[in-house]
Amino acid sequence: MYQLKVNGQYDYAVDKNGDELLINNKKTQADIKQLSPSTWHIIEQLRSYNVEVIDFNKSLKTARIRVNNNIYNITAKDQFDVLLEKMGLSGLTNAKISELKAPMPGMVLKVFAQEGATVQKGDNLFVLEAMKMENIIKSPVDTIIKSIKIKPGDKVEKGQVLLQFA
Questions:
Q1: For 93-110, how does the pLDDT look when each residue is reduced to its tens digit (9 = 90+)?
Q2: Which of 19, 52, 60, 165 has the smallest number of Cβ neighbours within 10 A?
Q3: What average pLDDT does this structure show over 71-90?
């Protein structure tokens, strides 16, 4: 089950049950032929559609498609996104984080981050040695580093504030 929003205006519920395609709980009879990895030809209710996927972002669940020379922006939610939304947990992935705490006790070996620097989610911030293993600590969000509370050689305890974000 997917909930699709087209051009930020139109909502569709799409579900596949075996070979049946349901759109807004109505069975749809369509002849769908894939012509290439990104193009399809669809015949539905005696109408012909040429469909091309222009852009597709799997992690964001977004796509831009061209249907008969008209471009549409689509965002999708699967059943898990809908469930998280119903539980009030949908905004957790975009939560604002103001500080980064030590995930474990250890010693700081290297610091890659610089105060005032803009970092992206997944960028390396520092290396923490714990139990004779080197752990590269990465940024959990896109942010700006406000202050750095550590330097190489510092011993840190679990939960200690190491970086603050703007």
A1: 555 788 999 989 999 999
A2: 19
A3: 81
